[in-house]
Write a structure and sequence with these properties.
The protein is built from 4 helices and 4 strands. The chain is of the alpha+beta class. The radius of gyration is 24 Å and the shape is elongated.
Length: 142
């Protein structure tokens, strides 16, 4: 069987900035519906015939919409970009919630805010902090 490769894009960051790498996975077993893949390092260790066995064999669906890695680099890149868009959305959402809560308590000392939170939680009454602008753009109310 010819070496079949699957691809996945990952990013890393260091002092020089952000790097996007295309990692390769090799198929070690194939069924009707799945590929069983290992990283390139594990694949090279297996080829040395030392009896070494990979610690992590991933099962990847052949026709799945979302997968860990893809036969086509274009699909792998599209998956990576979709993942980054989703991460950006959740980050923006969480930042808007954090800013709204901080805005609500900005004129109160930490002790007053702590007392207020403890009192409200004992009475099982939520503290309404208002609605961030970000929530208006989500489309929850359409």
């Amino acid at each position: 069987m010819a070496e079949k490769k699957l691809f996945r894009f990952v990013d890393t960051s260091d002092a020089e900035g952000i790097r996007i790498n295309c990692t390769e996975f090799f198929v070690v077993r194939e069924t009707k519906c799945f590929y069983f893949v290992v990283s390139s390092w594990e694949y090279n260790m297996m080829k040395m015939n030392t009896g070494w066995q990979p610690s992590r064999i991933r099962k990847v669906g052949k026709n799945s919409i979302r997968a860990h890695c893809y036969l086509d680099k274009k699909k792998a890149l599209n998956s990576y970009l979709a993942m980054k868009k989703k991460q950006a959305f959740y980050s923006e959402f969480n930042l808007s919630v954090a800013n709204q809560v901080l805005e609500h308590f900005k004129n109160e000392s930490d002790e007053v805010a702590q007392t207020k939170l403890e009192t409200e939680s004992k009475m099982n009454v939520p503290i309404y902090c208002g609605k961030p602008e970000f929530f208006e753009n989500i489309g929850w109310y359409e």
